[in-house]
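Batch job 17 of 40 flagged for manual review because the log was empty.
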Amino acid sequence: MRVAAMDPRLVPTRLYLIRHGRVADGHTDRYHGHNDVDLSPEGLRQYERLAAHLQDVPLTAVYSSDLTRTRLGAQMLAAGRDLTPLPCPEFRELCFGVWEGLTLTEIQAYYPQELAARFRDLANFRIPGGESLTDVQARVLPKLRELLRRHPGQSLALVAHAGVNRVILCDALNLPLEHLFRLDQAYGCLNIIDYFPDFTLVRLINGGVNGAG
């Protein structure tokens, strides 16, 4: 008896979208952007818990940004899978320009007019020397769609950053970038998105593998 082939419209490409673990900055909530900061011991433990949680998931590929805090996580997720994690600069965090390395309190003190302008036009305001969210969207989404085309009907992991993840989630939810901060992304969190040929299904946001969500 012949078994009917699965309708390809019912087989999604599943994206396991991860935010990097806690960074080694004294937990001051600084805007690191393109600064290549390392992970804290807790950040490494968050990756260990995440890797254990996903150990039975049949990942076909593991990607990350090219910054240390995401590449380390991709290496841990790929370990024991005969996979080589692939870093992609397109998935770097938003470049904060002159704000990089500062806390929100410091930005409010040193750049109050620019910060107010950003809140008035969250999607399009370009930080001096840096990027806008629209800029990030323009580099992230084409690369993501390239990877989805490369892995039809398979599961892949992407270790990225809070801003990048929110841009991807906004796209999946058809949500304007102006609402980006309605989506929480804790350190070491997990999101799961299924990409079907004709629609996208978000199955998990800010999943609590590491106690968040």
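Reviewer: the log was empty due to a logging misconfiguration, but the result itself is present. The first strand starts at residue 13 and ends at 19. Unflagging and moving on to job 18.
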